[in-house]
Amino acid sequence: MSANRGAKIILHSLERSRSQRILWLLEELRLAYDIQPYKRDATQRAPASLKHLHPLGKAPVLSIAPPPASAHHHHHHHQQQQPPSLILAESAAIIEYLVDHFLHPPATGAEHPPTKLTLPPRWTAGRENQPGGETAAWLRYRYLMHYAEGSLMPLVVMRILMDVVKTAPAPFFVKPVLGIVPGIVNKEYTRPNLETHFGFLEAQLERIAGEGAAAGGGGGGGAAAAAAAAAAPAPAYLAGTQFTPADILMSYPLVIAEEIKAIDPDRFPRLRGYVKGLRGMEGYRRAVQVLEEVEGQEYRPF
């Protein structure tokens, strides 16, 4: 059975938007999909045609046509009924839907390579379905799936908007005023808040790297394995030592922050290394390549 399990998937993708993450996930899940690109209009907004798909007119939007359902009327007559397509919006909701249907947990005892997309196990052994029985990695994962768009992204957007206002052409007598306002907003609000967030993520990566090292050192793989573990520290992702869909969701605000040089390399070296690592991943690069082919222009996140 193919990865799609009979579903036909179309990604409605807007240039310079959050669509690249969904594309990355589709690539990681080895799903077959079509891509419908949209250009921004003269005012840099999404075109009206996206509103026909979803009332908010934002991208990404994913449409999934389920496989035809076989309806059995009597025993000799059977016909195919096509259920209506699902229209999914909101990046985190799209990611969760795709993960629910197409990301299969690794077989028990199977060696899963660290770069392989996976979900953290939900329960600590012996504490299944109890409040507080969840693993730390699962709790971080669930948190990040809300945090990326709920807490981090609005700050990044505010920072970009202020940069736009600062550099926008304006009549000279208004310009000084417009220049002062973004400067104040960045200094008093955006920068300190972003730095608080980056400090939080930096500490999280440091803690996870520590957990990975501790786990790696405890394996019974003999001296050679221990030496290899020491030479190559376990990769740290944001939910744990495994690459999860939350990393894909978090990539967009962090890549933008890195592009506008908002992540101080001296204060947040792990976070910068993490973002660089994500951008170097095969699935990330493949998604960028697909977008560039489809749009006929160089990929820019915003």
Automatic annotation (TrEMBL):
InterPro entries: Glutathione-S-Trfase_C_sf, Glutathione_S-Trfase, Glutathione_S-Trfase_N, Thioredoxin-like_sf. Residues 6-106 form the GST N-terminal domain. Residues 61-83, 109-130 are annotated as: Disordered. CDD domains: GST_N_GTT1_like. Belongs to the GST superfamily. This is GST N-terminal domain-containing protein. It holds the Pfam family GST_N_2.
